[in-house]
């Protein structure tokens, strides 16, 4: 059956195209293990060159940069933001070279303008404006606004000659493979180290930064890969590859030791599977769903058995590491986050509560929502909530279980980490938006096209 699937598909062409896009990831991963600063400049050049061809080509590099954002700092600029800058500049070059009319997502435009005005207002209240972080956020939103305004279905179809949904799943999956490879190679080169003695949890670089960025992106790769295998129409080999990538990415999350992303993965996949069953209705084929659940159960049991053996079975882990931080229950009673949030809400005045205090007022708020409230007030939090709700409604109306699961994962995982001017929320939401754009454009091209699986051909 697998041979038949390969013979009747454009898989060889898809593989070669994906190799073209993932070669920059592989080179950056290799160089990063040897010299992170050199990898940052290489990533900037690679993302800029790919985006000049088309912004969608640079998206895997952007996603990779976000995962390894804290790998190094150059002149105060993070590794990930250098790659984002390359993607944005390359996108502008693409528009100039192609002489196309500039199309920009109205929602991203509203967010850019609103956040700028709110930051200026917050700066007036405190006497200073964080232009560095404001322009970094604006740079990212400009790239994403240009990317999500393009006709992605025809672009991916023309390049890969296959189902654009499948092509994009592979693009996201390749990032998961690259990030896991980075974890292993940088453990061996000591760029990553153990954050706590006796417990498996990583810290990044000389600054011993949190590995949460790695976990956030690996988690979205797991959710995307599993839900694509569950709900999209694809060959058995494709689905096996996606679930295998999800397994590898989850094992990468075991190294990082971040617990909230793992819980969020379970939440996102569960909600996505419920949505898939609801969207499929009578068109679903129970036998296909049964086989997939059996395979998923096998992967789950394999993961459980590996975790039960402890960290000593994992590569590059010394004998001094005896526990998996992932399995340690959280201590909610003495959580510093709650104390910080309570102190801020107890002291903030009504003016700052409505309009915000500006970016960085809370330092590291450890929550997208508290960070948005602190930076841009209730107005900014309302805009962010409307942004999420709008695309969640679009995902439901498009019957896209993949988009529903990604949005659910993103909403939960960033409840205890990140800030509004960080890149995680925006790039993870963009994955869902791209799926929605592809589905909507596919429906215009072929009204019979649906994101739901019709079984294995």
TrEMBL record:
The chain crosses the membrane at residues 14-34, 41-67, 73-97, 104-122, 134-160, 167-187, 214-233, 240-256, 262-279, 291-310, 368-393, 400-417. Coiled coil: none annotated. Keywords: Membrane, Transmembrane, Transmembrane helix. It comes from the Bacteria. It comes from Halomonas beimenensis. This is Uncharacterized protein.
């Amino acid at each position: 059956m697998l041979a038949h699937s390969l013979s009747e598909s454009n898989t060889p062409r898809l593989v070669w195209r994906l190799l073209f896009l993932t070669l920059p990831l592989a080179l950056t991963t290799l160089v990063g293990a040897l010299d992170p600063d050199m990898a940052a400049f290489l990533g900037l050049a690679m993302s800029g060159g790919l985006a000049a061809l088309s912004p969608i080509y640079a998206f895997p590099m952007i996603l990779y940069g976000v995962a390894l954002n804290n790998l190094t700092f150059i002149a105060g600029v993070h590794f990930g933001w250098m790659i984002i800058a390359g993607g944005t500049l390359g996108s502008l070059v693409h528009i100039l070279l192609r002489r196309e009319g500039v199309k920009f997502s109205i929602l991203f435009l509203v967010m850019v303008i609103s956040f700028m005005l709110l930051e200026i207002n917050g700066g007036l209240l405190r006497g200073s404006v964080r232009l560095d972080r404001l322009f970094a956020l604006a740079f990212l939103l400009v790239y994403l606004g240009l990317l999500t305004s393009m006709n992605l279905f025809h672009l991916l179809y023309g390049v890969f000659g296959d189902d654009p949904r499948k092509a994009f799943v592979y693009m996201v999956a390749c990032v998961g493979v690259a990030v896991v490879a980075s974890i292993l190679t940088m453990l061996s080169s000591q760029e990553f180290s153990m954050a706590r003695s006796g417990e498996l949890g990583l810290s990044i670089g000389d600054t011993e930064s949190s590995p949460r960025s790695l976990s956030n992106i690996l988690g979205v790769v797991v959710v995307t890969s599993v839900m694509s295998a569950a709900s999209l129409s694809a060959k058995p080999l494709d689905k096996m590859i996606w679930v295998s990538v999800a397994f590898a990415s989850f094992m990468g999350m075991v190294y990082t030791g971040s617990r909230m992303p793992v819980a969020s993965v379970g939440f996102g996949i569960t909600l996505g599977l419920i949505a898939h069953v609801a969207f499929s209705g009578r068109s679903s084929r129970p036998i296909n769903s049964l086989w997939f659940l059996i395979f998923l159960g096998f992967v789950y049991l394999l993961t459980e058995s590996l975790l039960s053996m402890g960290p000593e079975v994992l590569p590059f882990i010394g004998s001094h590491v005896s526990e998996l931080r992932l399995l340690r229950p959280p201590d909610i009673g003495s959580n510093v986050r709650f104390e910080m949030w309570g102190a801020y809400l107890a002291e903030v005045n009504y003016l700052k509560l409505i309009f915000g205090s500006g970016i960085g007022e809370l330092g590291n708020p450890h929550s997208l929502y508290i960070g948005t409230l602190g930076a841009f007030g209730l107005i900014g939090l309302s805009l962010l909530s409307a942004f999420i709700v709008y695309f969640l409604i679009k995902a439901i109306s498009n019957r896209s279980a993949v988009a529903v699961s990604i949005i659910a994962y993103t909403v939960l995982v960033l409840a205890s980490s990140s800030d509004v001017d960080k890149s995680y929320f925006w790039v993870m939401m963009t994955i869902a938006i791209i799926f929605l754009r592809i589905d909507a454009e596919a429906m215009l091209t072929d009204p019979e096209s649906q994101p739901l699986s019709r079984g294995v051909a």
